[in-house]
Amino acid sequence: MIAVTVDPRPIDIGAEYAALAVGGAGGIATFAGLVRADDGVEALTLEHYPGATEAALVSLAEAAVARWELTAARITHRVGRMVPGDTVVFVATAARHRAAALEACAFLIDRLKTEAPFWKKETLAGAERWVEPRGSDDAAAARWNDAI
Amino acid sequence: MATEILYFAWVREKIGIGSETVDLPAGLATVGDLVGWLAGRSAGHAEAFADPKRLRAAVDQTFVPLDAPLGQPREIAIFPPVTGG
Predict the structure, then answer these.
(1) A110 is in which domain, residue-wise?
(2) Cβ contact, residue pair A77, B84, below 8 Å
(3) Distance CA B77, CA B17 (A)
(4) Which of B5, B55, B76, B83 to mutate to test the interface with A (most CBs of A within 10 A)?
(5) N or C: which end of chain B has fewer CB within 10 A?
(6) Considering the entire predicted model, what is its pTM?
């Protein structure tokens, strides 16, 4: 019921979705994160910590499944070089009812941003710069800290 | 005992290598102590580790604060705050 993928190949959202639409699901929530062309960004390169990344994502998915009684959770994160419009991350949750699926999906992407070891580097006008963490991401992740 | 040290993102770029194997000297109590010791290995290490507040770490793939006990790990990773998603 849990599937985690970290892969340089483009994300097949149709296949990800189809894998969730089984096993008693009554509602599916999805989030797709895309590369933005902010400030003239030409490319985004994602680096990660092999092994630790997958373990962190599995841990997050297990927490979501337990907290919201999901029927399935899938997290797919692309790594390597991407261009604006490409899908970087796809998170999908399935549950018997919509509230659980929607909340769990938001939890997963919020926590992924602060807990999974990925790093983004932008290419602009031929130069490269590492993306700095944002305080708003910490705040978004912290809102799930309240009692279960 | 040999310990594998992994570097990611701009930490890796400043040091110029993604990993190295070191024999930890006695007397390193915390992960932060290790970072201080590693900073002496080269100019690149010193630059990467100049501001410990910008660093995060994992000991045997468990994320820990820099004041965490070092112990006798097989693998330590040092990297900037994460920016995925």
Answers:
(1) 2-131
(2) yes
(3) 13
(4) B83
(5) N
(6) 0.94
